[in-house]
User: Which sequence fits this backbone?
């Protein structure tokens, strides 16, 4: 069983039902992103207009496409245009801008997720002019063995992710490329990687990388000479991705990847964590790499880290200040959580935003992203 099938096995099976030519029809619902099966489904084809499709989606009605695949893409593009945020001339606080941004993202995802396509046995879309999506969808859903239905928007996302995976993402700190699995956070933001690559490093015997994702930080620690690194993640996809990263970079003797929530057994001289940096609800499984409801992971990591740290050991907490800039967490809140965990700050290394979204002036949160700073907090027992 492949890793996508293992992940899917943890979720209850869902089905969708519709009527076609007066006959009832049913199929298995697939979503690698945790979306629930739509309750109302109607078959549509090339004759539907973009306006009609938008009206149906706005009413919560899903559309199962039966026409030409490329025409379905055009309808999806038209829906995307209709869900773009309109220019807002009102004076708004940063917190209000963030709320409106998330509100629009949620609305947009709901609308775009309601245009569906059939995914048949062998991971084939049986529509005219449909591309070969076998490899991309196996990575996301596993091997399809029964009639299924998926969101076209999600399918296109799996294709994009597969292209990234095939091409690889260059990581300057490793002088190599990472090939992430679908569903893991892609290391396209170099700030946090570069901070770990340049932070003062003594000679730790063992390091832990908590919430490893693609394994990029564990790999950086290993290439900096840490003889043993234990990387953990709670998500099976991330564990599979990290293990492949380690193997590709020929670091398997130094780095062990474990499927576990937060800490492995034992203690380490250095414990590193780059948790999701926004304390808000994740609207999808993919959002979980960015959104940490109630700061669960951040607080859990800090509360438990001393129990796994060697005497005189060091903790590296890598965190963006985005949440502070949009009013979801203050700097004092963060420092109080650190202090309550029995830790004190040794130093804080900072990196300004250089990721592409910081340069996108069309983004309603452009000013926030442009001013964003990622910090590596060096902590020890107080």
Assistant:
């Amino acid at each position: 069983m492949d890793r996508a099938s293992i992940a899917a096995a943890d979720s209850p099976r869902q089905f969708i039902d519709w009527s076609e030519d007066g006959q009832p029809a049913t199929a298995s619902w697939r979503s690698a992103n945790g979306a629930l099966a739509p309750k109302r489904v109607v078959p549509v084809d090339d004759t539907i207009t973009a306006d009609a499709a938008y009206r149906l989606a706005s009413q919560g009605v899903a559309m199962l496409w039966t026409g030409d695949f490329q025409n379905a893409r055009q309808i999806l593009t038209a829906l995307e245009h209709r869900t773009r945020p309109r220019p807002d001339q009102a004076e708004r606080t940063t917190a209000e801008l963030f709320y409106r941004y998330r509100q629009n993202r949620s609305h947009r995802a709901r609308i775009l997720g309601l245009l569906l396509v059939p995914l048949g046995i062998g991971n084939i879309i049986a529509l005219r002019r449909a591309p070969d999506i076998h490899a991309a969808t196996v990575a996301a859903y596993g091997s399809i063995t029964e009639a299924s239905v998926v969101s076209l928007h999600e399918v296109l996302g799996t294709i994009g992710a597969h292209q990234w995976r095939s091409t690889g993402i260059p990581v300057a700190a490793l002088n190599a490329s990472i090939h992430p699995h679908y569903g893991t956070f892609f290391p396209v933001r170099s700030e946090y990687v570069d901070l770990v690559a340049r932070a003062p490093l003594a000679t730790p015997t063992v390091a832990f990388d908590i919430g490893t994702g693609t394994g990029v930080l564990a790999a950086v620690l290993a290439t900096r000479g840490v003889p043993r690194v234990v990387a953990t993640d709670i998500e099976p996809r991330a564990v599979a991705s990290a293990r492949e990263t380690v193997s590709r970079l020929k670091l398997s003797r130094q780095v062990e990847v474990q499927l576990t929530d937060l800490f492995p057994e034992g203690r380490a001289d250095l414990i590193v964590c780059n948790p999701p940096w926004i304390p808000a609800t994740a609207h999808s499984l993919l959002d979980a790499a960015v959104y940490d409801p109630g700061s669960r992971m951040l607080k859990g990591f800090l509360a438990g880290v001393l129990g796994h740290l060697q005497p005189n050991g060091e903790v590296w907490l890598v965190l963006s200040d985005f949440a502070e800039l949009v009013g979801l967490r203050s700097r004092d809140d963060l420092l109080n959580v650190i202090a309550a965990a029995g830790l004190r700050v040794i130093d804080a290394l900072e990196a300004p935003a250089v990721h592409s979204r910081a340069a996108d002036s069309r983004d309603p949160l452009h000013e926030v992203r442009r001013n964003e700073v990622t910090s590596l907090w060096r902590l020890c027992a107080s």
